[in-house]
Amino acid sequence: MARGEAPDFRGALLSAPNAKRLAERLARLRGAAMKIGQLVSMQGEEMLPAEFAQALSVLRSQATPMPQQQLRRVLGREYGAGWERRFTAFDHEPVAAASIGQVHRATTADGRDLALKIQYPGVSRSIASDVDNVAALLRLFNLLPLDLDVDGIADEAKRQLMQEADYLSEAGFLEHFGALLADEPTLLVPRVHRDLTTTRILAMDFIEAAPLDVLISAPQNLRNAIGTVLERLLFRELFEFRTVQTDPNFANYLYQARSGRLVLLDFGATRHFDTEVVANYARISRAVIDGHRDAVAREALRIGYAAADDPPERIEAVVDMCLLACEPLRHVGRYDFGASDLPARMRDLGFELAIRQRLLRPPPPETMFLHRKLVGSYLLLARLGARVDARSLILPFLPKA
Predict the structure, then answer these.
(1) Which of 61, 361, 366, 372 could form a disulfide with 251 if both were Cys (CB 3.0 to 4.6 A apart)?
(2) What residues does each domain of the chain span?
(3) Catalytic residue from among 130, 247, 266, 389
(4) Helices 16-29 and 50-57 sit at what angle, rounded to 10 degrees?
(5) C-alpha to C-alpha distances, 50 to 145, 200, 273, nearest whole angstrom
(6) Beta strand 335-336 pairing with 210-211
(7) What's the pTM value of the predicted model, to 2 decimals?
């Protein structure tokens, strides 16, 4: 600064020791600050320096748990005095701890085996200030590659996080998805227990199952089958249900080996999409698969990836990005997600078009959580090393050519 040069805040922040300290700090902060750390961590090593991605990866599945005394205060506030009499067993050690709350196993007096998701105190009150503070840091460290609508993105993040902090809302989505997926024998959604569910505690069936990581070393055909189930679920959520669980965090899925079923967890980040939005994405998917650049451009304008008064070269850049991003849909036969270098190619093309040529405009803030689902689903299948025929799975949901 004394030499009149701008300090390299970004380089300092992304160093390995600072990345580790940042992850530890976010894990203690919990709430919105940690949730944003999770979003960053999902970009993986292709988008971030390896040390930074590795340090932040811990945020996807764990946080610093509540002290037992604080936990008991929360239970007393939500269930009232003598809450212990509701249970014959209560494990004070959490089986999982994440950004908004931690999960405890308990047995009720009438014999139900439950998982209780218990929210950290003060999470909902801190969301607005946490999001504003993290947005300010992103600006300060120049971590935003585009001229993003930071205020719009922050507002969208606040809205979504406030919903995630309402466990009665999540209970409704759990029940909704349980009904929607009743015809899917390979999927299992925990049942909600309303008598023990409050705004800050979600009571559901405890399901014996293993983390999804156990499948990473499973036979290829099993990984392909699970990947196919996940990809088909994505298309059903968007095009059939118009209701999308937008947080495909690896920790939000379990695998039940004895039944071969995939257990779906955490519906706090679920989002409804109106008919017009879904139709736009169906049409652009059809156009991409058919390789019709004019149709891709037309639908990109409808979604907001481009504007009618944009110069032709900007619209062409948007079409190029859409075609590349949808490579798995354009591929005939099984696409090898694990072996693909698509994230690196997306990064390189995005840098060239957005940073060097300034041809890409930021996507609309309202698409942020849908993009998280789409990118996160790709990363899920890549981590599983699954080979999936995505094209044949999406075609039944799209307009005819």
Answers:
(1) 61
(2) 61-206, 209-401
(3) 247
(4) 20
(5) 18, 36, 35
(6) unpaired
(7) 0.83
Q: What interhelical angle do 150-164 and 31-41 show, nearest 10?
A: 110
Contact (CB, 8 A) for 252 and 233: no
pLDDT band at 125 (very low <50, low <70, confident <90, very high): confident
Arithmetic mean of pLDDT, 366-393: 92
Is 247 assigned a catalytic role?
yes
Distance, in Å, from the CA atom of 359 to the CA atom of 365, rounded to the nearest integer, reads: 18
For residue 239, give the 3-state DSSP assignment: helix
Strand order in the sheet with 261-264: 187-188, 261-264, 253-256, 210-211
Q: Is 80 left (phi over 0), alpha (psi -120 to 50) or beta?
A: left
Going by C-alpha positions, the residue among 135, 131, 198 that lies closest to residue 162 is 131
Q: Are strands 187-188 and 261-264 parallel, antiparallel or unpaired?
A: parallel
Residue among 172, 195, 166, 200 at smallest CA distance from 76: 200
Distance CA 335, CA 385 (A): 10
Asked if 143 and 10 touch (Cβ cutoff 8 Å), the reply is yes
Burial class (CB within 10 angstroms; exposed 0-12, middle 13-18, buried 19+) of 234: buried
pLDDT in the model for residue 62: 52
DSSP-derived secondary structure letter, 66: P
- Which is nearest to 65 in space by CA: 102, 38, 95, 33? 102
Q: How far is CA 181 from CA 69, 176, 186, 279, in A?
A: 39, 9, 9, 22
Helix (H, G, I), strand (E, B) or coil at 342: helix
Q: Taking the CB of residue 13, how many other CB atoms lie within 10 A of it?
A: 16
> Which residues have a Cβ under 8 Å from the Cβ of 24 and sit 6 or more positions away?
none
